[in-house]
Fold:
Amino acid sequence: MRKNCQKTNNRKEGKAKSDTVAYRLKCAKTANGLSHFVMYGDAPKEKAVL
Amino acid sequence: MRQKKRQYYEITVIARTLKRSEEAEAIPFLRLLRSPKAARNDSNLAKPGNLRGCRKERMVNQSEKGLTYHNIALKDNLIIDADNSFWAIPGEDGEGNPTIPRKALSLYENIRGDLDNQMNDFRFGANLTALYIDPTDRCNANCPYCYIPARIRKKGRSMTENELFFILEKAAKYFREQKRKAVIVFHAAEPLLVKDIIFKGIKKFNNDFKFGLQTNASLLEIDDVGFLREFQVGVGISLDYYSPKINNRLRPLDGGSGNFRAAIRAIEWFNGYEGMNVITTITKFNVTGLSGMIKFMHAKKVPCVLLNPVRLTQKNSRFLKPNEALMSRYFIKAVDKAIELSKKSGHRIIIGNFTNVILGIVAPTARRLMCDISPCGGGRCFLTITASGRMIPCGEFIGLKEFSGGNIFKSGIKEAMQSPSFKKVRERFVEKIEECKSCTLRNICGAPCPAELHSLGNMYKKAVFCEFYKKVVNHAFKLITTGEEKYCFRKQGLNNLEYEYKLLR
Structure:
């Protein structure tokens, strides 16, 4: 029982030494400046339904 | 052995189980991979019978949804939901064991639906934003891998001024109705053979479109550079190597020599112009010199280079196919060289198609290079209009007659977008490709290219350079773990992005 408690405590105390990385970005304006279309300019992101 | 076996288990459910039963903030990463009981109890996963003693491939095939484990390298792993590109790279606890914080899993649970919808809209929305116009079918070069058949390049027609203006007028009307300012790219074969009408078009329709030009630069003059800069035209210059001998073998011009001298002269004239890029086609003849190419372009102040593996659409390009393992190694070396040079100097150089891979991971819906997305952008986000007015989903289809969406002199852009041949291209997406549907990287690589694979016999096959893409994506993840991915963006490009969510770093 004591052993189990100790394990749990260790888990609680076990703070990450290096951080997990998880993020996502989105376009604030357009994707201009990022890839293929940079070279050719860019267009707004509005979508049209076919 | 034990390590390998852990990879079999699907993580979503396991995470859910841990959420209920554990109190710790961080969960040891390996625990996530160690709960066969939880996996067996979940209806989304493989049936219990299948879990016992199954091979890795089979198990992965049965775990197509939710978070899965992905191995980047020997010691580096991550969890990823391939459908919406949510991913998390584990951190380490005090003892060096990989851990995932509980809030990463909670975050995933909370936003999973939204991310699925976003990705769905992005992939399946038809958002025509660019037209590639070939104002002439003719070319003064004979590149051995060209996707335009030689008979068209040498005997094809050129547009008249009236024809080009008719198309631009029609396109302007279409995009006005759509309330979008589109991009017009003058592309293959060699558009500067009809320089006069192109430049007149750019001037006349400057307010309607943004313009781009892809050229071998052989006909470019110094005054043209001033004009193109004034009208902020994006300019792509074709150059395959940093020495004339190899480049001119791959980019020979009519009359014997190649475009090396002209391309270098043009690059120097543009003198670091931010709208300039250089496109290099990777073949077996230049594959080992990719990082040398980056070094050379960096010294010439080129801001962006595209290192595109040769497409095998035309038969004559197939004997130029580079060795895939070599290409992976040297492409990654080139990426590292670009980062090293960008860090050291004030001038940043990016490899556009690698940046697009990074975007596929960190900002999937901000991607613009449409070859790495499934369905691809052909006939969806852009289309090509040939010199005879034929509308095709992408220039790569130019030699494939069955993919015509009509003629712009007789019908409209709307009709082309609704045509069966365009729909056929849009209907090809990774979930329908046997080899891709269970791949954790399926929405980062996009399994290009439908035209290439169609000409090789079956559009519903994985990418010709599948292993190359896997290695490149893994390298992108490695850069993200070290925070070096920021050097793969243009500075102004980064300013256009904002965080949708962010954990820790």
